[in-house]
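User: Thanks for the earlier help. One more: SnoaL-like domain-containing protein. Can you show the sequence and predicted structure together?

Assistant: Of course, both are below.
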Amino acid sequence: MIRKLTLFFALLGAFPAPVLAQDEMTRAAFELYLERFSAGDERYAELYDPDVVFEHAPQFGVLRGREAILEFYRGIREQLEETVVASEVVIDNEQGVMAAELTTQLLATRDGVEMPSGTLDAGDMIISRGTVYYRINNGRITHIRGGIQGAERIAGGQ
């Protein structure tokens, strides 16, 4: 019996649950954040400070607080699948800043999705590239802003 319990607890320790929040931002934590975000796993927001500010595109305004960001993306996910991948990430915990070059793929899951660039139908896709700047403190994101350097629209079936 003791042998089985020892094995059980050893296995538990061998597979710790990934943790996002820590004292410093790391590339691994940021990659897990993007992985969870892209999968629609709301645990991505664990990396946000409760009072995070997200300066989204002008048409969407400024989102204030973790819950406001979660609510915004719940609405997005009703119409789009969003996948975000980082190519370059620079983190300076001492200065409290991080910058990431990101590629975002938006795939319409239904017809009639209104976007700033026009209406998407199911299967249509927008791929954009841009740089996002983050303020960070104690391993959490406190401020987000960015810009798109380019975007491509692809009609469904292509």
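User: Great, one quick takeaway?

Assistant: Residues 2-14 form the longest helix (13 residues).
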